[in-house]
Design brief:
24% helix; alpha+beta; 178 residues
């Protein structure tokens, strides 16, 4: 994973205790994972690494916006996102990332690359259904919305009095004759 070396945190030279790292995430980060559902990104990521004698604890907190297209109108808008992830890093004989919350890295390693965890955390923070705020409050002017309103079925309730199908009347009479 050399293409995400800015997310490789060297821990071997750090003293035991908590250490803070700050990252800025732009659209290029998502493009490197071939994720193209967003138009742009401006996300701040704060990572707290707690180094202990036998393991590492990572707390990741992100906050920012991604520019996505509305599922209804296809209009781009800035979607606010915030997410967090806790990861425990233990040392073992070989690399193992099968567990979502525990990463095992070989004893000799001196750095940890968090790019994949950051990517998954951020993608999961983006809502599945993306609706422009202007659609929700009715302020968005869009040809798509105008067309949707035009094609919306009109609710016309016609009361025809008691004009019912005579065949049903005959069946209702059978129920009353019991």
């Amino acid at each position: 994973m050399t293409k995400h070396k800015e997310f490789a945190i060297p821990f071997s030279g750090l003293k035991q205790g908590k250490h803070e790292f700050e990252f800025k995430i732009k659209n290029e980060f998502f493009e490197s994972f071939e994720y193209d559902d967003i138009n742009g990104a401006d996300i701040g990521l704060r990572v707290t690494l707690n180094k202990m004698s036998t393991m590492l604890e990572l707390e990741m907190h992100s906050k920012g916006t991604v520019n996505v297209n509305c599922d209804i109108t296809n209009e781009p808008f800035d979607q606010k996102i915030a997410s967090s992830l806790e990861l425990v890093v233990k040392f073992g004989d070989e690399y193992n990332d099968e567990n979502d919350e525990i990463l095992i890295i070989p004893h000799g390693d001196h750095l940890i690359n968090i790019a994949q965890y950051v990517y998954e955390m951020l993608v999961l923070a983006i809502p599945q259904k993306r609706v422009h705020p202007g659609v929700l409050d009715g302020t968005l002017e869009s040809e798509v919305i105008d067309k949707l309103e035009e094609l919306q079925p009109k609710e016309v309730k016609e009361n025809k009095g008691n004009n019912t199908d005579p065949r049903w009347d005959a069946l209702k009479k059978l129920l009353k004759d019991k």
